[in-house]
Structures are given as structure tokens and as C-alpha cells.
Amino acid sequence: MKTWRSASLAATAAALLVLTTACGQEDKGGGSTDGGQPVGAAKPARPDGGYGDYGSGGGTERGTAAKPAGRLAVRDIPELGKVLTDSAGFTLYRFDRDTASPPRSRCEGDCAKAWPVVAAEGATAPSGAGPGLLGSVARADGGSQLTVAGWPVYRYAEDTRAGEAKGQGVGGTWFAAAPDGGKAGGAGATPTGGPGGYGTGGAPSRDSGSGSGSDRAEPVGLPGLSTRKDPKLGEIVVDREGMTVYRFLKDSAWPMRTACTGECLEKWPVVAPVNKNDTKGILKKGFVTFARPDGIKQQTIDCWPLYTFAGDRGPGETNGQGVGGTWFAVTPQGKAVGTAK
Which keywords does UniProt give here (predicted)? Predict the structure, then answer.
């Protein structure tokens, strides 16, 4: 009896170890490329439900405190046209995942290191601007950030000289600000918010993409991860902003590895860790945090790493479905929609 009990306990312990290792928690090699080699450095985390969209400047300390802009100016930059700058000539940017009505910033923590926020205090409008162009928004850290036509504005840590605009188009979500608060270079959306002296603007087009889904409204009070019924894909997982969650078929759950690194993360930001109690309708088996070898922590379902897509501009969009034949929306059980995996 004693021998049988010892053997049974040993077998149970071994099974648990296999499960843990298979889910990647004991796999010190972490993620891999297609060739099975450890991944290299990747982009830093963002706090609004995923990681990425930052560019390569996330590790700097330049943006740890908001800096004043002084009197704003308008500058002509080749290929972009007229761009709004601070008094020192540095390009100002806006983030598609922010909102202008009401003003709201979703760039905090490491994001604000790559994209230093512009302090509202002491900022004055450029010559010729209307009185309502500039405003401010209170940040979660207690600071006050400058807004242009309602949009929070930032600098980019990789711009080291006046007149540079290296942040244009980063992650498909960051764009230089036009003088009226819209996107410079004909990149699309025009702003909402207070009137400016550079045009009337219009409604924001954050949710105007071509992906499927009809619920374009800004979600309120969603859990960290939940589900929604997509008219084409069925029940799929969404993050706390209602953005579609995806899986990459080149990843692995057994053992847990990632093939999306570096520039890949600019298009496919990882889903940040979510408390298991902050979910609704999601499979809890294998609901663990993946400690990637690049230092990013990523949420999984059934041990599969989860991502969002920078090409989805608003809730209800599924522009990432089927991209490259390797990216697919996720079912509540962690399956890739439309595949057998």
C-alpha cells in the first residue's frame, strides 16, 4: 500500500510538472523564431491592454516627466506638409487610441517614456490659431497634458533634432499633429474638440476602418478580457477596450513559445496580463502569464499567447483575421477562428 501510494504521488507530481513545463512556465528558453532560436529584444509594454506601438525609443528615460511646449509653431516637413511643433521645433504627435471627445490619454508608463507627454502649463497657441484650439486633460499620474482640438499631444523620444518626424506612422497609430489637431501628411482623421483657426475639423474616425463588426461605439466597463458575437466570425475574445484579440499560428503552446518579436510587435501588440477574476466567458484553463525572454509579460488562453492588431482602429473591427494565413481571432476556448488549431 505504501509503495503504491508513493508511486501515485510521484506520478501526480510528474504530471503537474509536465503540465507546467508544457505551458512554458519552466521553459527558460522562452520564445523562439521560426528556427527555434531564442527571441531578441522587442518593444516595451503599453498599459492599455497590450504592448507595442511605441517604436524603438521605449527604453529611454526622456519622457518620465511632462515638459512644457512654450509657444507652439507650424513647420513644413518634407512629405508631411504643415506640422505642429513645440517652441524648440520638435514635432508633436497624437495617438489613435486616445480620444478627443472627451479628451483621454491611453499612453502611460513605458509608453510615456517613448512618447513623452507635453505639459499643458505654459503652452500657448501658434500665431493665427483660434482661442479654443488648445486645452488640457488630467492624467492618471496627476499631471496635466496639453491637448490640441481635444487630442492629447506628445513628443517622440527618437526625434533628437528639430524638424524630425521619425514617429510618423509608428505602429499604424502614431501620427504627427497637423496645425488643426488632425493627422499630418493626409493620414486620415480630423479632430473633434474646441474650434481652431486652421479649419473646422470634423468627427474623429478612430472607428472608421473597414473591418467587420457593427459595434463601433467606445465600450464602457468591459472586463480585461471578454467575448462578443461577431456577425461573421461568431463568438470571439476582446480586450477591455473591445478590441479583437488574435493568435499567431507560428507560436506554440506546448511548450509556450512566441515567433512574434521586434518589428512584429509594432503591428501585433501583445495582450498584457489580466487578472483571472477580471474576465467574462473566457476559458480559465491555461489562463497564465507568459514571461517572454524579451522581458514582456503576455496573457495567454489555453497557453496560447494573445495579441491585438494595430490595423484595427476601433472596437468591432477584425482586420487582422487571416492576415498572412497565420493570424486569427480567438474563440473563448483559445482556438484560432476558422482553423482546427
Answer: Signal
CA 230, CA 226: separation in Å to the nearest integer? 13
Residues 6 or more apart whose CB falls under 8 angstroms from that of 109 comprise 45, 46, 47
Residuewise pLDDT in 10s, the chain (341 residues): 445 444 444 444 444 444 444 465 433 333 333 332 222 222 333 333 332 344 433 333 343 468 889 999 999 998 889 999 999 999 999 999 999 888 999 998 889 999 999 999 989 998 878 768 999 999 888 889 999 999 999 999 999 999 999 999 998 899 999 999 999 987 654 333 333 333 323 323 333 333 333 333 444 468 999 999 999 999 999 998 899 999 999 999 989 999 998 889 888 989 999 999 999 999 988 899 998 888 888 999 999 999 999 889 888 899 999 999 999 999 999 999 999 87
Buried/exposed code over 302-330 (b: 16+ C-beta within 10 A; e: otherwise): bbbbbbbbbbbbbbbbbbbbeeeebbbbb
* Contacts of 35 by beta carbon, 8 Å cutoff, 6+ apart: none
CA separation for the pair 148, 193 (Å, rounded): 8
What is Dmax (Cα atoms) for the chain? 90
Q: Are 281 and 334 in contact (CB under 8 A)?
A: no
Domain boundaries, the chain: 21-49+224-329, 67-186
The three cell numbers locating residue 172? 499604424
Q: Please, are residues 297 and 291 in contact by the beta-carbon 8 Å criterion? A: yes
Q: In terms of Cα–Cα distance, which of 52, 32, 84 is closest to 243?
A: 52
Where does residue 112 rank: exposed (0-12), middle (13-18), buried (19+ CB within 10 A)? buried
Question: Residues, the chain, total?
Answer: 341
Query: Taken in order 321, 262, 58, 248, is the CA torsion positive or negative?
Result: positive
Residue 233: CB atoms within 10 A of its CB come to: 19
How many Cβ atoms sit within 10 Å of the Cβ of residue 252?
20
Query: How would you classify residue 326: left for phi > 0, otherwise alpha for psi between -120 and 50, otherwise beta?
Result: alpha
